[in-house]
Predict the structure.
Amino acid sequence: MLGPAEAPSSPRGKRSGGRAGNLRRSGGGAIHQAPWTIPENRDRPVEPLDEEAVERIHNGAMRILEEIGILFLNDEALGIFKHAGCDVDMETQRVRLDRAFVMEQVKKAPKTFTITPRNPARTVTVGGDSMLFVNVSSPPNAMDLDRGRRPGDRESFRDFVKLTQYFNCIHLAGGYPVEPIDIHASVRHLDAIHDKLVLTDKVVHAYSLGKERVEDAMEMVRIAGGLTHEEFEATPRMYTNINSSSPLKHDFPMLDGAMRLARRGQPVIVTPFTLSGAMAPVTIAGAVTQQTAEALCVIALLQLMRPGTPVVYGSFTSNVDMKSGAPAFGTPEYMRATQISGQMARYYGLPLRASNACAANAPDGQAVWESVFSLWACVSAKANVVYHAAGWLEGGLTASYEKFVMDCETLRQLIHYMQPVPVTEEDVAVEAIREVGPRGHFFGAAHTQARYETAFYSPFLSDWRNYERWSLDGAVETPQRANKVWKQILAEFEPPPLDPAIAEELAAFVERRKREGGAPTDF
Amino acid sequence: MLGPAEAPSSPRGKRSGGRAGNLRRSGGGAIHQAPWTIPENRDRPVEPLDEEAVERIHNGAMRILEEIGILFLNDEALGIFKHAGCDVDMETQRVRLDRAFVMEQVKKAPKTFTITPRNPARTVTVGGDSMLFVNVSSPPNAMDLDRGRRPGDRESFRDFVKLTQYFNCIHLAGGYPVEPIDIHASVRHLDAIHDKLVLTDKVVHAYSLGKERVEDAMEMVRIAGGLTHEEFEATPRMYTNINSSSPLKHDFPMLDGAMRLARRGQPVIVTPFTLSGAMAPVTIAGAVTQQTAEALCVIALLQLMRPGTPVVYGSFTSNVDMKSGAPAFGTPEYMRATQISGQMARYYGLPLRASNACAANAPDGQAVWESVFSLWACVSAKANVVYHAAGWLEGGLTASYEKFVMDCETLRQLIHYMQPVPVTEEDVAVEAIREVGPRGHFFGAAHTQARYETAFYSPFLSDWRNYERWSLDGAVETPQRANKVWKQILAEFEPPPLDPAIAEELAAFVERRKREGGAPTDF
């Protein structure tokens, strides 16, 4: 503790005027941002399991694949396995895979790969120490402090895409940040992907929800990049994420989409939906075992089809509230499951995807502790792709404008945190300490003056003014401050440059595909 | 992301009635608590520095002690150093210590020790993997949602002491959780320590603020424990925490108190107040170097006086807002400084103290992310003693009732997190997965039924009900829920048992010392 003699009020007492405001302006932007950068997470991961326990989970996953089998509700996938000599029951659609086969296929997957969007400066590396943040994806609802919670629409969709583009701490424009339900489902993907390709220049994603949607997405990414078909296929340009229908089942459209992307060399994240106590065992070890089996069998399929297909081992294992069945996130179980998933991903030499998830209904304290615990899990697991990194609330049912901004504040802090701490002789600063001596202060020291502008992370959303000033200025709490930030960002938003010829080609494609009726909606 | 096909609403849809309420009753208590337990933090620490960089900080600290020296504003301390042959300038009160001497003394400190309060069941181990949480200490103000922010008084002091006793996740009753300024300073320590010894049975602390306060505190702890003087001195029964007056200075009363406790075998936490950019270099490496020098010289003094004195290396290094001079907490710099402090503590074989600190003015999102980042730092640094673990706001200027409850929720989650994850063959659950199969659900499985009651951590403050139910019930956010919790705890509070004869002796001591005038107030 601090004794009264050194009460922390003293340095505050020295402040000459406080901060002008929370919205620091720099170059006309709503906030001052560090440039786009991909953090390198060089810390040792936290590993809850010893080697023997990792082997036990691996062995359990192999036994599931060998003895119990997985349903592949997709005849093409079944045929591919059958052709490779696997144990396939075409009638029950059950596939059993032996461990030697699975491990042989999984070994073909690259440890790291890049994805290059229409702006090559936004190319990302997936795997290794690299850590990528993806916007919130797929909530049916949008929420903000002014308008409350409401079904997503194209306007809110576009707002979140703009926030995704604006924040340099968001690396991938993942799934729809909110479902634009005012666009008819048959053509929704055309407008939505068009908006994403025009309003952002970051990597985009395609939902694996039927042939037309997937093929249209690939074609639009190709057009937006100004690429030939050969160029599109030469290196990853986009990606999809598929979920299992746990327990032990992969549905038709997810497998179909995954195979369509894999055939063209595009990455697939395989994320089983293994909520412990509901669709997976009530033990974390059991849930991660099942997750591993469900992920590896699809990864094996894709490697069998096209060796070297870029894939990611996805972890979404969390627990449910056993009283209600509601999914919980950012829990101690989520943290440990994510870290153990990291151990399994490294065991198989695969990149790891996890999430910044929470169950809270409002951007309040619970939302933040659940989210920061989730991020702690992601960092300590060495997750390479962090889904829902900004904006997710309510177990994924709502995309929150204010939470998006709050999450970006914490993401920026983590990006700064992941920078190495310099420890040269100059940093150790014995000469500066000698110069200041026991009766001086470091504010004015030359050592400080040479470094103070960039020495520390500078938050855009924290209010560090003293209580009196903060109160006089309305005692504005975090979500209300975030509310001001997103409004200013949207008011000032300018889309990234796009060649007019490409914009025209993209629009023409959308128009044509709409005329053709888009995609069937009977899924 | 989750595709619409597996939108996370589905498990929520299955809930049959939600939770009865957030205040789960069990045995009449306000909340259902796990029993008192001391978490063992067995994960590998995060270590930002390599061995060479650790040596560079060590070398810098040694050079500060050898070449620059530290002011000891206490003639007794100066005399002890002089008697040992150290380079002491009695006029300027500057002490220079050579590294061989410092390291020889520091080596005498125990790696771990226990502290036994009046209830031996509340004995704690300091050091090793053990992690202890201490209540907020020393704010001048108290705050709650009903009465707002106001100067601390005896009533709020007692309230926080009751919360400290109530929550099993709080292990030590540290400094005054809020300053009871309605008690005259001359006798405040008598009433305050009396309240603490009566309302709690956990380890208490003495402020090092003058001979009378320290001696009275030791005597009261001895009386409360029913101990002879010999028994009191035989093993640690309480502790103090002293802060340097950085840069490079230790004040009279802090040193006096530390030496008084050390002489009687009681532990001393030495916590330099090295805010980077203000009282310490603007570089984290420099601030931790200075912190190390300032801590080790006092630890050397205490070991010189009484070899084996239990001591703790205290880290309070954080950064200031360079625009205003305000201290910041829970920042990336705080996290790294704490982790590096952990490396230094292990280098010297000393237990580590750090803090759960934040700069926010309200128990909002900022408060929570700063606090959880601080806790992340403490866990990843392997801090043994976490000061201000519950209730701190506003850089330590305010103790918040609601924040106390919110912090206890996160502490309980971390205590659960630190339990080992079981990974037996039964936990891996291949047979349960076989039994449920691809078309079943784990809710009803025997494997689940045998474990569901204790499988997962059950929060007392999170609201996991769905949005509709939460809204219908008033859309109550986290601080408002915490407000209800502390009121119920205080309404139901019962002090721990205390032998009436001891209670009488304690009261008589306080009365006598008050008659004698208590302590001088001219410090």
About this structure: Residues 335 and 368 of chain A are 15 Å apart (CA to CA).
